[in-house]
Amino acid sequence: MNTSGSGTATGDSIGSVPSKTDDPAWAHCLIVPGKRNQTKCLYRDKLIQGGGITRLKEHLARIKGNVGACKKVSVDVKWQMQQLLSEARKGKEKRKRKRLGDMVGSQCGSQTFVEENDEIEEIPQSQSQKTIKSALQSKEKQEAARMAIARWWYDANVPFHAARSKYYLPMWDAITSMGPGFKGPGYHDLRGPLLKCAVKEVNEWLLSLKSTWSTNGCSIMADGWTNQRQQPIINFLVYRPRGSMFLKSIDTSGLTKDAETLERMFDEVVKEVGVENVVQFITDNDASYKAAGKRQMFTSDAWVGSRYARSSVGKEICEIVLEDKEFWSNCIVVVKINEPLVRVLRLVDNEEKPSMGYLYEAIDKAKETIKKNFNNRLSHYMPYINVIDARLDKQLYSPLHAAGCFLNPSIYFKPSFNKQTTVTRGLLNTLTTLISDEDKQDLISSQLEEYKKATGTFGMSLAIRQREKLNPVAWWDQFGTDALELQKFAIRVLSQCTSATGCERNWSAFDFIHSKKRNRLEHERLNALVFSLPNQILDDTDNIVYDEEDVPQVPLENESEQLWTGVGGVTGYGIPPDEDPYNYVQDH
To answer: What contacts 537, CB < 8 A, 6 or more positions away?
Structure first.
């Protein structure tokens, strides 16, 4: 398929063609800025050095001699370039014999391209040597042609944006290259042989997409809609990063679109693409679509042939999915409640930045999201909000969280923030708890007014812009210099975490050290191991959970002399690779 509508050239940036040119050849190339007389062919991404537009025409017309022939150009473009070269030669000969008078306008200064034979050919512009009479006649013919196109356009109800199609201008290039007398394709041509040719071209293009399915996998997308005739249609598309392709369309008129029917339909589509190639199946949010997807999970060959399908738990789950209609409705309720709370957990479990300044607002946002998930219906969401509030008040709430919110400029100065009174109370409680000196308390209290009113360095335009760009600790470090005591207090509060989940990592190495066999090690070496290995795990800011093979192996009792030099590098002390190394050590 021709893709001349977009360039794929790399390397030097490609510029656009001068706007006043009317030579059709420019639609098939790009100019290389800064490279005199150099163009790039859109079909082969080939750099044409020297000769300007004439050399490009020879390349596209497959005229050998000065330049290599383009092997990817279509027949119609090739024929058009040959015609343009022929007309150019005749024009040069005619200009040599006679100079026309009564110029329409002076020549426009434009970029020129010099051929190797030192002949200069300008980028074609409105032909400057026409007589007034010939120019008027040409303009009248152009208007007549344009109106003929417009009348057909309006009569056929073609949308205006169709003129932006990448095939629109190449179509006119092909038509004009045929010259007078060319007749366009008729009704039967368009619906018969030409349509078959178009399908063939598309299939050839899709082969390149299909070839990547086995390597990268793909996603099947099902989209249900109703056409103008009120026929229910389901379109199936296959998505890949290189592009989506339309697979098929099924008319579901007369079919009951329940879970069982859709399941059979989806199963056929998956098999057509290849079960091994499909990563996921994406459907509408319609309940029957979702139910069909869930049923497919437990009717697939992979599930039926697995050991889980024969287990008591597997049978129970399968029965729930296929038979229990209330189960999935209850799951939706669970998701509505837990999704906002999981976002809060992700915040507090993030080790890349302290979460103290964000937790208070995050919990408030989570509760607001839960209310929206239940369409703000008090009777639906209030039982769950009461449970959350009870846990917050009894176990989770801390004045430190409110202080962190108060001292976080990205939240406190937000116009929509309306918890100033509540967080101020928490801030004062934190202040009197952490700072025992009453003089310092008074000083920090007075400096708080500067922060609340955004005066001094707090009110600098730079400080205001950086409120949401810098993390709170960095912001106080830069802009809290006018209130040093408050700055120190704020940094101390905002630098803290809000959860102990950072400690919940893979402690298998820790247990390994304290096995019965390990207790005979020298006391100092044992302490060194207990100190170093867990801290190496905590130092992993990317939250990577080590596999057993990644944990440094500690030697057995009779190999203790190798321990000191081998921490972090000693592996495989006779531990069979197919057994759990920790159980092996303790059992032997």
So the answer is: 505, 506, 507, 509, 546
Q: How far apart are CA 573 and CA 562, in angstroms?
A: 11
CA separation for the pair 573, 137 (Å, rounded): 96
Residues of the chain with pLDDT under 70: 1-22, 36, 96-137, 215, 225-230, 240-243, 254-259, 284-301, 323, 325, 350-354, 394-397, 497-588
DSSP state of 483: S
Handedness of CA 65, 66, 67, 69 (dihedral sign): negative
What pLDDT, on the 0 to 100 scale, is given for residue 439? 92
Which helix (H) or strand (E) segment holds residue 250: the answer is strand 245-251
Distance CA(183)–CA(400), nearest Å, equals: 82
Burial readout 71-108 (b: 16 or more C-beta within 10 A, e: otherwise): eebbebbbbbbbbbbeebeeeeeeeeeeeeeeeeeeee
**Per-residue model confidence (pLDDT) at position 98:** 61
In the block, residue with structure tokens 């952490």: 434
Q: How far apart are CA 411 and CA 482, in angstroms?
A: 21
In percent, the amount of the chain with pLDDT more than 90 equals 12
Write out the DSSP string of 32-51: -TTSTTEEEETTT--EEESS
Q: Find residue 114's DSSP bridge partners.
A: 120
Which has the closest alpha carbon to 554: 525, 524, 523? 525
CB 382 within 8 A of CB 519: no
In angstroms, the CA 232 to CA 464 distance is: 55
Q: Give 225's strand partners.
A: 233
